[in-house]
Amino acid sequence: MADPLTITHPNMDAKWFDMAVHRAHLNGCRVIPTGVAGVLFVTSGSSNVTYRVTRTECCCEGHRRVGKCQHRALACAYADIYRKIERTADSGTAA
Q: Has residue 27 got a pLDDT over 90?
């Protein structure tokens, strides 16, 4: 049996995190890998802006105001899901 997937989302409770990821998908936000460990770009679905995002920071106005945002939530989900897939592939087991 595969290990369960755990998504780490600092300073966001589970309800807020779920809502933010859902909102990011509805808004058309996209994750763009950077090639730098721990850093992703996330596009804004509503404008032609791309934000630099880590697990704990995002340069968008929402994050500056309240310390959490849909871009960072999406980046956390992406990073943990991708890491789980990568670990599973390395071990040769099914996800």
A: yes
